[in-house]
Amino acid sequence: MRVKAVVAYDGTGYRGFQRQKNALTIQEELERALEKLTQTSCPVLASGRTDAGVHAEGQVIAFDTAWRHTLSELQRAMNAVLPIQIAITQMEVAAPTFHPRYDALRRAYRYTIYRGAVRNPFVVRYSLHVERTLNLEAMQSAASMLVGKHDFVAFGSPPVGKNSVREVYCAAWDQQDAWLYFDIEANAFLYRMVRMLVGSLLRVGYGALSPQTFDEILRKRERRKAGPAVAPQGLCLKRVLYAGDT
User: What is the pTM of this model?
Assistant: First the structure.
């Protein structure tokens, strides 16, 4: 049977999701756990790759298994053998043709910024510390320009092929006390796209770019004027949506 599961993980110390030679990855940990439990190789499919150091709350995976017990038992068993940085939060039987990447309709990411006057060692693994003054109104104005279907080549590169057109459904900043969140949802993302966007939007907040210049970078596809990409630890894959999800 094909199993669909939702995975949460702390990406610190991992070279991203996708299996690599001579580097520890989330996929390798999941496949190792499945093989230990089922005594067979279980290649894992994923909704997308996350970069080194990036976290996930709602990464979706799928794998085929002949597991003879209940899925709740498989979920408990996997969480028992996986490293504490990785947890299976949901598990269900999927259609035999289900593919977590190709069937996904939307993906949502959040980038977290800590605005305290002094860095906080207890949140440094999951946020970027920015103490400089920011013009949040200008950043919000620039972020709103991302909504719609655009060629985002200025802010990333396609993981496969040459198509860099993506459709963004929402992009907005939200400030809560010392925390600043950038939430963005799209049909798909380019490699490093969110981190490049946040880096560019921070420059708007610093006054180095105007919202209008930011819009020109997007429309004119001027890669050399965008970014730089911010550090990975503030980025988290929040959820992946499929047909029937609410």
Answer: 0.96
